[in-house]
Amino acid sequence: MPIDKTQLLEIIENQVIDMAVSGQWNLHYSWGCSGSYVQVGITFNSNGTFSIPSQNLSGRWIQSDGMILWQFNTSKTSYGGNLAGNAMVGIMSTFTGSNGCWYAIRAGSTIMLAEERKAKFDAAGEEVK
């Protein structure tokens, strides 16, 4: 059966959306919005999944109209924010008392390095042992 114009536009739009986020990013997060950020690599896959291999974390993501939201598989911890080109910025919450701020830069983009520190909590808000 042939595809009508509306279905075709939806397919094209979904591919453009996936392409806008898919790939490797450098996530900088700060529980408590202290201004001191931990940096980890995060990969957004075009099938709506993401992973943070260094912390053995993964989950699902969605993006629409310049906004992004992702949630971990192992907890309700969620990150939400705005996407503009090669940068994202937003807030996150465990919904059990911990909140924070984050930003992400697409891997390979030119940036000024932020001060890095050893993580006390992983990206999902769990204490690092």
Model description:
The chain is mainly β. The chain has one domain: Beta Barrel (Lipocalin), CATH 2.40.128.80. Helix content is 13%, strand content 43%. The chain contains one helix and eight strands. It has an eight-stranded antiparallel beta barrel. A hairpin with a 6-residue loop joins strand 1 (23-31) and strand 2 (38-44). The chain is globular and about 55 Å long.
The Cα radius of gyration reads 16 Å
CATH class: Mainly Beta
Oligomer: single chain
Strand order of the largest sheet: 1-2-3-4-5-6-7-8
The CATH H-level superfamily is Cathepsin C, exclusion domain
Count of beta strands: 8
The pLDDT mean sits at 86
**Helix amount:** 10-25%
Key attributes of the depicted protein:
mainly beta; 43% strand; Lipocalin; 8 strands; eight-stranded antiparallel β-barrel; 129 residues
Characterize this entry briefly:
The protein has 1 helix and 8 strands. It is mainly β and 129 residues long.
How would you summarize the topology of this molecule?
Elements: H1 5-21, E1 23-31, E2 38-44, E3 49-52, E4 57-64, E5 67-72, E6 78-84, E7 87-93, E8 99-106
Antiparallel strand pairs: 1-2, 1-8, 2-3, 3-4, 4-5, 5-6, 6-7, 7-8
